[in-house]
Amino acid sequence: MKIETKVLHSGYKPENGGPGTIPIVQSTTYRFDSCDHVAALFDKPTEFMYSRFANPTCDAVEKKIADLEGGVGCMLTSSGQAASLLSVLNLCCAGDSFIASSSIYGGTINLFGFTLKKLGIECIWVDVDASYEEICKAIKPNTKCIFGETIANPALTVFDFDVWAKAAHDNNLPLIVDNTFATPYLCRPFEWGADIVVHSTTKYMDGHAVQGGGCIVDSGNFDWEKAYKATGKFADMVEPDESYHGLRYVGDFGKAAYIVKARTQLMRDFGCYPAAQSAFYLNMGIETLPVRMQRYCENARKVAEFFKSSDKIAKVIYPGLPGDKYYERAQKYLPNGTCGVISISIKGGRAAAVRFMDALKLACDEVHVADIRTCVLHPASATHRQLTDEQLVAAGIDGGMVRFSCGLENVEDIIEDIKLGLAAI
Ligand SMILES: *Cc1c(COP(=O)(O)O)cnc(C)c1O
């Protein structure tokens, strides 16, 4: 099936006379009639037993997302942050390192650079445009994985999958990719060599700004046993898990080893799982993902062109626009569009940007992105507020920069609104 069909039909098959939409199973527990049955589940978790491990509503949505990305399994989490955290902790422990592209979401930069450091895990930053040799050179004997972002929030760089996947695999390392901005409608990282995908489903996947969430998807493609034999890494993927009655992830679950371990070890211990109700909302968002993504891309393309034509705008960053630094790379990996987010830099710096934003009537100033409604954010006074003007420049952000997230309104109304903003400068 094509993705437009999968978003509606994967993951849940109504029984004869059963409910047509995924039922919300608002229950923490599942009842069994014998001790032996429960004991067997503790030896090998194959059925629902407690909703921290798995819940039928979440399970249906997980199966759908796994199908959309082309993976063997998926685990929903309570937020995108939780997904990024667990995706790395499933491979790294104190004393290990991993590599991350320097162009990733700011929240992930804090998590990797500060919080994981406190846990004894080192993040080695490598430029998003690094060559194969540069990436390989950064890898240390204790490096366990590589992390990148398909279209980075907010820098809008495009990840060069071919280079990063080859560097990862030539060194027996799995590649994890945050696919939040692209969604599986615009890019399926497994088709380009990624091994694990994470999402903040809070953004386009849910799409309606009604609840936060995240997920980890396993391609099933990484050969843990081979990497273990070659390097001694990933022993806990292959050797018996003493915290789980000697469960063997590769031995007992084959291609789904990574995602089963994430659930049985990490979700068991950290407990950052979503409510069934949240999974239900997420599913409703996903059902319209293809039509929404098409419209986001169409609107953003027209809005980017409009910005480009204005003499009040110093710079327009949109990888779907010819002439953008990442246009060619986007054409290769994201031929159907590059999401609805545009970065612009307004001539006149901070003061002009604030006047532009405050004059907008339709686009709302909010700490969100990829909303169904057009929204804007001024990084210099919000997410990057603590930085001086010099530090902002070093971070690739200037006082005049505005992150413009196109919604699904009629594009003519969005452009009329932008005209109001520009007139106020
Ligand atoms: C928002 C975001 C996250 C974090 O997701 P939350 O759901 O807010 O925790 C991670 N990655 C990217 C690319 C994001 O945009």
TrEMBL record:
Keyword Chloroplast listed? The answer is: no
Keyword annotations: Lyase, Pyridoxal phosphate
Q: Which GO terms describe its cellular component?
A: cytoplasm
Stated family = Belongs to the trans-sulfuration enzymes family.
The biological process GO terms on file are:
cysteine biosynthetic process from serine; L-homocysteine biosynthetic process; transsulfuration
Residues recorded as bearing N6-(pyridoxal phosphate)lysine in the entry: K203
One Pfam family this chain carries?
Answer: Cys_Met_Meta_PP
Quote the protein name from its UniProt record: O-acetylhomoserine (Thiol)-lyase
